[in-house]
Amino acid sequence: MKPDLVRVLDGNVFVLSEDNGDIEANVANPCGFFDFDTRFLSVWRLTLDGERLHPLSIAERDHLHLRFFLVPGRPTHYVDAKSSVIRERTITGGVFEERLTVLNHNHVPVEYTVRLDVGSDFSPILTVAAERRPPGRLYQCPEERGLRLGYQRERFRRETLVTSSEPVRADEQGLTWTVRLAPKQVWTTTVRVQAQVLRPDGVDVRDRLERRPRASAGERQQDLANWLSRTPQLSCDWEALTDVYRRSLVDLAALRYSPLTMPDQVMPAAGLPWAATITGRDSILTSFMALPVASELAAATVRMLGIDQGAVLDDFRDEEPGKILREFRYGEMVAFEERPESPYYGSADATPLYVILLDEYERWTGDVDLVREFEDEARAALRWIDEYADLLGDGYVRYLRRNERSGVANQGWKDSPEAICFADGRLPGPPLATCELQGYAYDAKMRGARMAREFWGDPAYADRLEREAAALRERFDRDFWIADRGYYALALDSDGRQVDALASNMGHLLWSGIVPAERAAQVAAHLVGPRLFSGWGIRSLATEQERYNPIGFHVGSVWPFDNALITWGLRRYGFSEEAGRVAEAMVDASRYFHGRLPEAFAGYPRELTEYPVRYPTANSPQAMATAAPFLLLRALLGLEAVGEHLLMAPRVPARFGRVELLDVPGRWGRRDVIGSGLAHVGP
Length: 683
What we know:
It is a single chain. With 683 residues, the protein is of the alpha+beta class. The chain contains 17 helices and 31 strands. Strands 3, 6, 7, 8, 9, 10, 11, 12, 13, 14, 15, 16 and 17 form a 13-stranded antiparallel beta sheet that branches. It is globular and about 85 Å long. It starts with 5 loop residues before the first strand and ends in a 7-residue tail after the last strand.
């Protein structure tokens, strides 16, 4: 995605445009109005008397509202514009509105021709960055007050309805207004764009499914204000931390949406633009990291993923009983089974992470009812670890796609084809057991044991899970530890050989607790050593590895969520200085992205670039990156939910100065946490 595209979004509904508000989509510039995993507008081009418009400024009130101040032609220092245009853009619940205002600055009457070119290719979001000829029929129907665009393929039908509040001439390519203005006069119209997901009888599918009316723009704005008022208030001497915290709160609010199955609850969409949908891993980890600010996201995520938990063996969808989905899509390719995301279960990490989230949610909130309500789902997830994930019978979680045509080959968080590799660049043979999957499985068993003993009334099951976790920890250390290099292998291949690349994955092992105490110092040293630590964060793959590439998606770039989990793991093992170093680097990097951490950025060494380099196709905002500052802050302040208490052990680097996080919510009510880097001395 072009990094300079302007966006408004409401959960999984969003608009991406150029800085003048225009949309002209192509393979290199996949902008548009998107809803229901479909692009409903691919052309949205405004002209005044045939001239393109150029921006003077853009005002972003919040994620729902944008205002563009424009002039025809290119503005110069020598010629005053005789007219200007304001585009005010809002989006709520599947409806995109644009208020167009034309201002006559001249001292004589003027007649303008205002033209809005409108079009849609109705591309599935999965294909907007590739050439594709639509297999169905596109149609355009001018109407009295606007234009109806449509696409039909057998029973699959989508329409975009564009209407004007003022009289307009519509043709198949757009809308035209003739505007006569007296000196200093203003003309305004509101153009409304509605995405329609139609059944064969012409009824919008969502009208029958949603049980409450869609919120208005004003209601959504009030909802944002209420959301921000409920979250903990942060103050810090280092302004960069408060900036990234505030930006993350607003972006996380923007990424909330209500699935059709649960219209009264909100969970996080994974990210804009490529992952604005229900996901397993992303929603779980986002909800985990956001527990100190918005625990309700975790409850909705547990419910939604539990409802869609795998129940049968389905090769096309890589579904297995107990397995948690990878992602859910609604678009054309899914409807005709050209893609498996209906839902798709090709993720080996989401299932143990589901158990981890359920337990951590109860620790933070005390919501025992949810733990009991989803006991069967948690047990099924734990059973999946042993019965379906152990593909070779060696006690390790492995993955092997059964959908060879359109399934995902690598089913951990590093899912690009070359992500799991030997140090010399060779690619290992599946089924693969990546190291972090074993850490997640260990943690899931330990947390499952706690829930079984305290809430499910099954101490025998708890004892069994703890024995299994201890055995996993012992054999993991034996089989994954590379003694002569002092770090854990990235994975085991199908023959049990160590995939010996040095990668960030082993930082997740500290988060899970599977690392023996005597190994932790060596692991920590590698994580913050020069091969992995760029100065801006921990790289996904270390330098000197054959496939290392500072702008490789999973083979050298820096991922904020990855760094946040590692930071929490470093604190867990007592490496406060190292944790502070990573957290400081992340917050420092955020200053170069206007306070919004992207999905990933380049892994160039800090001394080479002097600033973090943007990764060209990263999602932004992306939910896990958006939530990363919350976990970084939790690590700095040492926040841990234990019983009815919030424990705190601040270890704040000096650069942060005084940090105050007020009204932290949880089962304890609300608590204030204060830490000071200026006063910190010692380990």
